[in-house]
Design goal:
Blueprint: E1 6-10, H1 14-26, E2 30-35, H2 38-47, E3 52-56, H3 66-74, E4 79-83, E5 99-101, H4 106-114
Parallel strand pairs: 1-2, 1-3, 3-4, 4-5
Helix pairs in contact: 2-3
């Protein structure tokens, strides 16, 4: 991911989102935005300027990130799926995408982004 520096974070837990933001800063990446819902993420994607994304699979209120993943894939934007559960929770159409297990470490985030 040599050219991907503007990263969208989709995460519904504020402390985890802030931690990811700190990790990205240390890794020399810029924030393209933080969203905690499907609607907010889709608006940020529509605005453009995203090189890659980290998507929490399960969002508040039972929302899943699949519409976000579809919008990113349609635009050719790479993404990693973050999950605290097993990979069984990942929809069939996205099982080939890289995953980032929770709890996050900076090394795991760096490897996941570098692998995109």
């Amino acid at each position: 991911m040599t050219g991907a520096h503007r990263i969208l974070i989709v995460e519904d837990e504020p402390l985890i989102a802030m931690m990811l933001e700190d990790f990205l800063d240390v890794l020399g990446k810029q924030m393209a935005g933080i969203a905690d819902s499907v609607a907010d993420a889709l608006a940020l994607i529509e605005a453009g300027g995203i090189d890659a994304a980290i998507l929490d699979v399960n969002l508040r209120g039972g929302e899943k990130s699949w519409p976000i993943a579809a919008a990113l894939a349609a635009r050719g934007v790479p993404f990693v799926l973050a999950t605290g559960g097993s990979t069984d929770s990942i929809a069939d159409g996205y099982r080939d995408r890289p995953t980032l297990p929770k709890p996050f470490t900076m090394d795991a985030v760096a490897k996941a982004l570098d692998g995109l």
